[in-house]
Amino acid sequence: MPGPLTPARPLSVRRRRIALAVALTADFLQIGLLPLFSAGVGSPFDWGLDLVVAIVLLRTIGWHIALLPTFVAELLPFVDLFPTWTAAVWIATRGRVVTSEEVGELPRT
Q1: pTM of this prediction?
Q2: How many Å apart are CA 104 and CA 85, to the nearest integer?
């Protein structure tokens, strides 16, 4: 199991694209449909969306420390006006993407 100082596992281009699509969609929904996701009655929808996005991203790109403050920030009112999920995916996946040619060169774990 990787520790805090071990490098994260490499990601395929496909997994990175899926993670970015999920993050962009979530941020677009939260910004574009602000009245539905604002504090008050719509909050359960917002929390539900954030929970689903967090689970999908964890399954797609794995654990990264950038996901924790993003999930906490998403619980705060009006922080959804900043694309936090997209920023977290960008931070979590930079430098981890490998091409199909490089996959053959990776050591098996």
Answers
A1: 0.77
A2: 31
Longest dimension (CA), the chain: 52
Among residues 22, 9, 15, 28, the alpha carbon closest in space to that of 106 is found at: 9
DSSP state of 64: -
- Are 57 and 65 in contact by the 8 Å Cβ rule? The answer is no
**pLDDT for 80-102, tens place per residue?**
778 999 999 999 998 887 766 55
* Pair 57, 85: CB distance under 8 Å: yes
DSSP secondary structure letters along 25-40: HHHHHHHHTHHHHSSS
DSSP per position, 41-63 = TTHHHHHHHHHHHHHHHHHHH--
